[in-house]
Design goal:
single chain, mainly beta, Jelly Rolls, 10-stranded mixed β-sheet, 8-stranded antiparallel β-sheet, 1 helix, 40% strand, globular
């Protein structure tokens, strides 16, 4: 082989290999829940109280209470109880990565198994680290997964903005019906880019919210967001058909949380 041709071939091989390495998704944050006890304090904080959380929910979210949030057997367990020591009769937990895990764009995936029964309302979602554009919904919300027990088998992925939100009935989202949601683990994910947010269940894309380019009232998602995991009881949506008092306690099980700089291929 002539020297120039050999050099050219080597360069082509080098750049091909480099492009493959550089295209690999990088894991930037994760929790595999492999240490028993309370959730890792370097990764998770708690939001506490029973003021209804904007939805007339019934639970009191506790802090550092293993009954409501613990890691065991390689799982995060968020457990809601009928609990008469609290004024509204229920306790649960709401974990957040605020100021500990914050991202602008990326691929976020959570493998989880959902609770069952009327009155349960688990969610995997994201809020802005700072309300740069004003209070909710102006600064945005990304609901990676929501599920209400009175509608078994159907999960929702939704975004809320100033222009698109449930108070106006203009929210943008998709839904997917799957068997055995309450009996099996599934992976819920978003691929969040500058021009769109794609929503996935078990690797299947079921909804895309596109950046219209019409400003922050429709797309407030060019800023850092943090992750929330919670199990609510009742509320405007979760309690729409009442609360079955015979089903408690109920568990929202999370196998892992992983955040990549872009979607793994």
């Amino acid at each position: 082989m002539k020297p120039l041709i050999l050099i050219f071939c080597l360069l082509v091989s080098y750049f091909h290999a480099f492009s493959q390495i550089s295209s690999k998704a990088q894991l930037v944050w994760s929790d595999e829940f492999d240490s028993n006890g309370l959730p890792c304090p370097e990764k998770w904080s708690y939001e506490v109280g029973d003021h209804g959380w904007g939805n007339n929910e019934r639970q009191f979210y506790t802090q550092l209470e293993a009954k409501n949030a613990r890691v065991t057997g390689g799982m995060l367990v968020i457990e809601a109880h009928q609990d008469l020591k609290f004024p509204k009769g229920y306790s649960s937990a709401r974990l957040v990565t605020k100021e500990k895990g914050v991202w602008e764009y990326g691929y976020v995936e959570v493998r989880a198994k959902l609770p069952r029964g009327r009155g349960t309302w688990p969610a995997i979602w994201m809020l802005p680290q700072e309300n740069r554009l004003g209070s909710w919904p102006n600064s945005g919300e990304i609901d990676i997964m929501e599920y209400v027990g009175h509608d078994p088998g159907r999960v929702y992925g939704t975004v809320h903005t100033e222009a698109f939100n449930h108070l106006k009935g203009t929210q943008k989202g998709g839904q997917e019906v799957l068997p055995a949601l309450e009996d099996e683990f599934h992976t819920y994910a978003i691929d969040w880019k500058q021009d769109r947010i794609d929503f996935f269940i078990d690797g299947k894309k079921y909804f895309t919210f596109s950046n219209s380019g019409k400003g922050s009232s429709e797309w407030p998602f060019d800023q850092p967001f943090y992750l929330l995991l919670n199990l609510a009881v009742g509320g405007n949506w979760g309690g729409k058909e009442g609360i079955d008092e015979s089903i408690w306690p109920q568990q929202f099980l999370v196998d892992y949380v992983r955040v990549y700089d872009h979607k793994p291929e």
